[in-house]
């Protein structure tokens, strides 16, 4: 199996942006622009926008995701949302382990693993984010860091469940900074993630795994990044808030 046979997925991570009115407007703009996409299109929206997003994407090819979920099914966890609450709404995806959750909200590899387990048990598909800090890249330990993040996050996940997982490589120094990893840097680490997954499962499974790059991907640099062997899609922050830019990235993934 090679890149052409893997499912390309372009996902928007809206982060803490858009109220319900803006969500409806952005999705109405986006829908016709991506209607003929040859890749999967996902939008990861704030919890408060999920119902609006589901309503405005119904019958379209846009899939809806949340940006986090808790590891418990219910209980005394003020401010948290469970996987079951999301699937009950009709949500299909959840983004887990984003570096902003790790940096600002105390997320660790172990809690990412717990959330991922709960997401799978609750029936969600997962976009698992991993990536090194600038300091770690400069120390030459990117490979070790990313391998460790992948290994811990996937503990207790069966080969069959891996069909519901996408891994997003997001170097922290490239997020929201306008400083993109070069296409070769992105490809190198996505390839390394693929080899880690091959060692945990098998080569065939790893060859079929969708691995995205994220970090300042935009309408201008997307083609080069997406042309790389191990880059099967993108997790897009800022550029996903502009319908035309996001659609350009979707088009680039469609063309491979
Ligand atoms: P930017 O595209 O804004 O750099 O954000 C990337 C990201 O964090 C996606 O999850």
3D structure, described in words:
The protein has 256 residues and is an alpha/beta fold. Helices cover 42% and strands 15% of the residues. The chain has helices at 20-34, 50-57, 83-89, 99-104, 109-121, 134-138, 142-153, 183-200, 203-208, 222-226, 243-255; strands spanning 9-13, 40-44, 62-66, 93-96, 125-130, 165-169, 211-214, 233-236. It has an 8-stranded parallel beta barrel with strand order 1-2-3-4-5-6-7-8, surrounded by 5 helices. Strand 1, helix 1 (20-34) and strand 2 form a beta-alpha-beta unit. Helix 1 packs parallel to helix 2 (50-57) and helix 1 packs parallel to helix 11. The longest helix has 18 residues, at 183-200. The protein is globular, with a radius of gyration of 17 Å. The mean pLDDT is 97.
> What structural class do the secondary elements suggest?
alpha/beta
Which ligands, by name, code or SMILES, are bound?
Answer: 1,3-dihydroxyacetonephosphate
Q: Could you tell me the radius of gyration in angstroms?
A: 17 Å
Q: How many β-strand runs?
A: 8
Q: Could you give the order of the helices and strands?
A: EHEHEHEHHEHHEHHEHEH
Give the CA-based shape.
Answer: globular
Helicity range? 40-55%
Low-confidence parts lasting 5 or more residues at pLDDT below 50? none
Largest sheet: 8 strands, parallel, barrel
Q: Can you give the mean pLDDT?
A: 97
Intertermini distance: 15 Å
Q: Tell me the fraction of residues in β-strands, as a range.
A: 5-15%
Q: In what order do the strands lie side by side in the largest sheet?
A: 1-2-3-4-5-6-7-8
- The total count of helices amounts to 11
């Amino acid at each position: 199996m090679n890149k052409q046979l893997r499912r390309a997925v372009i996902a928007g991570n809206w982060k803490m942006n858009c109220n319900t009115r803006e969500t409806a407007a952005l999705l109405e703009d986006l829908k016709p622009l991506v209607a003929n996409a040859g890749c999967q299109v996902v939008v990861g929206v704030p919890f408060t926008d999920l119902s609006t997003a589901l309503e405005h994407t119904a019958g379209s090819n846009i899939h809806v995701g949340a940006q986090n979920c808790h590891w418990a099914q219910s209980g005394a966890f003020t401010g948290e949302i469970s996987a079951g609450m999301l699937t009950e709404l009709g949500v299909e995806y959840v983004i887990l382990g984003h570096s902003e959750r790790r940096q600002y909200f105390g997320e660790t590899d172990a809690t990412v693993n717990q959330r991922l387990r709960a997401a799978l048990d609750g029936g969600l598909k997962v976009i698992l984010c991993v990536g090194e800090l600038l300091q770690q890249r400069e120390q030459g330990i990117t490979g070790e860091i990313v391998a460790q993040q992948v290994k811990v996050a996937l503990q207790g996940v069966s080969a069959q469940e891996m069909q519901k997982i996408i891994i997003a490589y997001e170097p922290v120094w490239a997020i929201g900074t306008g400083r993109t990893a070069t296409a070769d840097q992105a490809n190198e680490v996505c390839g390394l993630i693929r080899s880690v997954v091959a060692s945990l499962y098998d080569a065939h499974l790893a060859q079929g795994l969708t691995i995205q790059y994220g970090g300042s991907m935009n309408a201008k640099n997307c083609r080069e990044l997406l042309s790389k062997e191990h880059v099967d899609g993108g997790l897009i922050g800022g550029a996903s808030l502009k319908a035309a830019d996001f659609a350009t990235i979707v088009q680039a993934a469609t063309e491979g």
